[in-house]
Write a structure and sequence with these properties.
Layout (H helix, E strand, L loop, with lengths): L1 H20 L7 H6 L6 H12 L2 H15 L4 H29 L5 H8 L3 H34 L3 H49 L3 H9 L23 H13 L5 H9 L3 H26 L22 H6 L4 H35 L9 H23 L6 H25 L5 H21 L5 H22 L5 H8 L17
Length: 508
């Protein structure tokens, strides 16, 4: 217990220390929200990766999908690395940085408002962001608190409140720069922590080959492969269609999430984008691939402690049960690992939500004349408000973590992904198409919460994203176009000639 407490005290002290140090980088709105658009590749890449992977992945998704799909769940981690990191940086990174700077856009709703010349679109995007980031935040609290309960026997409510208070302190003090520096520290902990946990858990099962052999003897209870042995060690697992749904949601979904795309707004220069692409992808392979690979052995820890009285599986209890057998020092490392992942995600979520609400909804709409000082104060107040709301929701959450994340990611990415990506590349996207995508993502996700016409909220989210990618071009072709001179002015930043050093370009 002493080891665990020491780890936590040191961790908390570092986080708060970084917040205090970063105060000098948060004296105006641009610095508080974007770090002055001068954040280097390592900080940006780690900020992207640590915002991507949290307790939701490590405790919720790794446990649930590892139990359902066995070792084939590792494909989710590979998809996260290739689609969610590598391709996201290649397709979105550079254009997002150039166009958001050209439009002086600080948030995703601000980008929508200026790209499509619509105040109403900006306000709607802001409202969608604020509403649907709350369930995601609650899911992060939920996953982390379960792990704390296993290690310290501390009540769930105390864990949630303490974690929320710490996040509020360092984000309110230092803004984006504080979250970026802390994300870098937390990311290093995650890299070493996940490697140590995988080695220790497999050693506890007699080693890698012994663990594979045990897993291969377990009979599948999945309808498609009922009674079959070896399904949980097969290449594509026992349920490929639903596995693909998870890959799509957790990989492609990042392209439309405000807190993820926001990282591209703040990156420093061209070289940083190239380096950040490589760093972010390697980080995702190790962390996400490692989490799902570890979860693939969940069936080896199928004890009564992970089942309800009616026999149903408590997915969020699988990973904590798996880790309960580790030595105390490793449990301490795991706690700091998951705490790191969760704190970074939380800080990104609350900063995105408060800045969106202040800059896109209140400024110029509710409060007409809002100077820099008032904007900073308003953002800090809403940081606290957002955290309080998400804590209240986390204290009485739905049945399991993945449901919360599926709802949030499905609505946000379903609404935003298509108009954001198409808007970076295609001049022909219309305002009507943007509204259609917003409506599709929100209505499909929310209606499915109550009517459950799609059994899995994960698949509902994936379908919402794919639907948006089809709806936007179709509606754009049959609805009135934006004025050509306005669109040309928006895209002129991509045709501008710049002079670069020979070391940065081989162009003659």
């Amino acid at each position: 217990m002493a080891v665990k407490v020491v780890f936590l005290v040191v961790f908390f002290a570092i986080m708060i220390g970084v917040g205090v140090y970063s105060r000098k980088h948060a004296t105006n709105v641009g610095d508080f929200v974007l770090g002055g658009r001068s954040v280097g590749p390592w900080l940006t890449a780690f900020a992207y990766g640590t915002s991507y992977f949290s307790a939701v992945v490590f405790v919720g998704y790794a446990g649930q999908f590892g139990y359902k799909y066995g070792l084939s769940a590792t494909w989710i981690g590979i998809g996260n690395a290739v689609i969610g990191s590598l391709l996201a940086w290649i397709v979105l990174g550079r254009r997002t940085r150039v166009m958001s700077n050209h439009l002086s856009a600080s948030t995703m709703p601000d980008y929508f408002g200026k790209r499509y010349d619509s105040k109403a679109i900006r306000i709607a995007a802001s409202a969608i962001s604020f509403i649907f980031l709350i369930p995601y935040t609650a899911s992060v609290y939920n996953g982390l608190s379960r792990l704390f309960g296993m290690a310290f026997d501390i009540p769930y409510e105390v864990c949630v409140i303490a974690m929320a208070a710490l996040t509020a302190v360092y984000v309110v003090l230092g803004g984006y720069m504080a979250t970026a520096i802390n994300d870098f520290i937390q990311g290093i902990i995650m890299l070493f922590g996940i490697a140590a946990v995988i080695v220790s858990v497999l050693n506890g099962q007699g080693g890698f080959y012994e663990a594979i052999g045990k897993l291969a003897t377990i009979e599948s209870d999945v309808p498609l492969t009922m009674g079959q042995q070896g399904a949980f060690t097969s290449f594509f697992g026992p349920d490929l269609p639903n596995l693909l749904g998870v890959v799509v949601l957790t990989s492609l979904g990042t392209w439309g999430l405000p807190q993820m795309v926001h990282k591209f707004y703040a990156i420093k220069d061209e070289k940083s984008i190239k380096s950040g692409t490589i760093i972010s992808t390697i980080f995702a392979i190790i962390v996400s691939g490692g989490c799902y690979f570890l979860g693939g052995f969940a069936r080896l820890f199928d004890t009564p402690s992970i089942h309800n009285a009616d026999g149903s599986v408590v997915y969020d209890a699988i990973i904590p049960s798996m880790l309960a057998t580790l030595p105390d020092i490793l449990v301490g490392i795991v706690i700091v690992l998951v705490l790191s992942a969760s704190m970074s995600t939380l800080s990104s979520l609350v900063l995105t939500s408060s800045s969106t609400l202040t800059l896109d909804l209140i400024k110029g709409n509710i409060v007409k004349n809002m100077n820099e000082k008032k904007q900073l104060l308003c953002m800090r107040v809403f940081l606290v408000v957002f955290i309080v709301i998400s804590v209240v929701m986390a204290l009485d959450p739905p049945t399991f973590i993945a449901q919360l994340m599926g709802i949030s990611w499905g609505a946000l990415a379903g609404a935003f992904l298509a108009p954001f990506m198409y808007g970076l590349y295609w001049k022909g996207v219309t305002k009507a198409a943007v509204w259609a995508s917003f409506a599709c993502g929100v209505i499909l996700t929310v209606s499915n919460m109550f009517l459950k016409f799609i059994a899995s909220p994960i698949n509902a989210g994936a379908i919402a994203m794919v639907a948006g990618m089809i709806i936007v071009p179709v509606v754009s072709l049959i609805t009135p176009k934006m004025k050509k001179e306005k669109v040309d002015k928006i895209f002129e930043c991509l045709d501008e000639t710049v002079v670069v050093h020979r070391r940065s370009s081989i162009e003659e």
